[in-house]
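SEQUENCE-TO-STRUCTURE ENTRY
===========================
Question of interest: how does this chain fold, as expressed in C-alpha cells?
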Amino acid sequence: MTMPGQATVVQRHVDEALAAGARALLGGSASVSGAYVTPVVLADVPEDSPAMREETLGPTVAINAVADTDEAIERANASPYALGASVFSGDRRAGAAIAARLRAGAVSVNSVLGFAAVPALPFGGSGDSGFGRVHGADGLRAFTAPQSVTVQRFAPPVNLTSFTAAAAARARAVSFARWLHQRR
C-alpha cells in the first residue's frame, strides 16, 4: 500500500465483511501483512458492510448477485463514492449503454482501468470520490483559476456606467441598442 494506514482500512473492511457473512473466494484476513496486501475476492458481502459503503482503495473486489442490470446500476449508483467502474458485456453497445447510466468519474467497458491507458481522457471521481480532474484538457483546467480582465481603450461617447450621464444621452443609447439588436 502506498498510503500509511491504508492497509488497516483494507483489513477492517475484509474482517467486517467476513464477520457479517461474506465468503472469501480468494485471500481473506491473512492477505494483509504490514504494508502489503495480496488480492482479496469476497462474495455475498452485505450491502451495509464498510467494504460496500466506503472506499477500500486496496486490492479487493466484492461480488454480489443481482436480479438484473437495473438492480446492478441502482446498487452501484447508491454509493456516495464514484471514482471508477467497469462494465463487462458480450455486446459492446449494451455495455456502453450501461456505462452511460453509471454515476462514476470514469467507466471502462470490457476492461479494468481502460480509461487510464488514454492520457487525453480526464480522470477524476464523482460524488465523494476525489475532486477535480487530471489528464486531458479538463485536467489542465483544474490547475487554473480563470480571471476576466477588461481594459478600457477609449472613452465612450456616453458613459453609461456613471450617474453623471445626461438623461437624454442615456435615452439615445438605449434607443440605439434596441435598434441594433432588433429582430430583422
The chain has one domain: 6-138. The domain at 6-138 is CATH 3.40.309.10 (Aldehyde Dehydrogenase; Chain A, domain 2). The chain has a mean pLDDT of 88. The longest strand covers residues 23-26.
